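Sat 14:20. Reprocessing the chain from the morning session after the first attempt stalled halfway. Input below, unchanged.
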Amino acid sequence: MQLTNYQKTTEIPQAIKQYLQDKNSSQAQLSRNAGVGEAYVTQILKGRTHIGETQIKDKYYLDLCNAIGYSITVQRWRHFDTLNYKIQYNAIEKAREKKSWIVVDGDTGHGKSYAGERHVQLFPSNTFYVQLNGLDNKKELIYEIAETVGVDAVGTAGKCVKEIAKKICNIENCVLIIDEAEHIQDKKEFLKVIKTIADQTKDQIGIALIGCTIANILKSGYERRRHLFRQTARRFRDRDFLDDDIADDIRMICNELDLKDKRVQNWLVSRIKNIAELKIILMNAFEEREMFGTEISVQMLNELYMN
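Finished this time. Tokens:
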């Protein structure tokens, strides 16, 4: 098993600290029980991976985990604070804080859906997330939002929307995230639902439209004087755009996954265009490494990429 940098600097130190607190034990006692030198325990608890210039071997982390009964697993992928994630996080929180309407616009694979779903995980009591993909008409959209916010979808569409608005307006610091909002281009009736909810909750909740080319869709509809598009474009004038240049994010993720080989990083930067694609090829590379015991190299990536 090869531990990740996150496991060594954060997960395992936190588990050890919790153990020492729960058991009212000491570093010295843990050192004896695990057969790991106390100097190593001290550095590991500080989240450090070296003593001087010497790297602390994974064996010592695993011995400590065994001693405290903590199960550690291979963590091939996890959350990363990429630039685009931060843009989306800040945009949604701005909408929440200011009780405003905002568009987050970015290409496929930039983690838009992930950011929306993670927001629900971080703030489950006042964050509501729906996707337009797979919905055929405004009635389905209304029912989807109603179910998400915990409202019975009964009566007319208008009554249901009023109940939705009433419910979310009574939730402090509430934000509604509507993902894959590019589907408004083909389903104009979705715009009517979004506009109505926005109007009935104005200055009381935040609403974020997330998707691909939304700004262009609204602009085109506005210029062609399409009624609902013009109204929606006026309301959602605040727009944040994701960055297509993810080179720094790729290098950051590689470093956090202990892929320090610059040739590997340069290979990925030159070929990978979004984080979803990066995840796929790195997960395949990790599986290859564990199966055959070989280090991740440019040759391995070339073989995986060609396949």
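The chain has 15 helices and seven strands.
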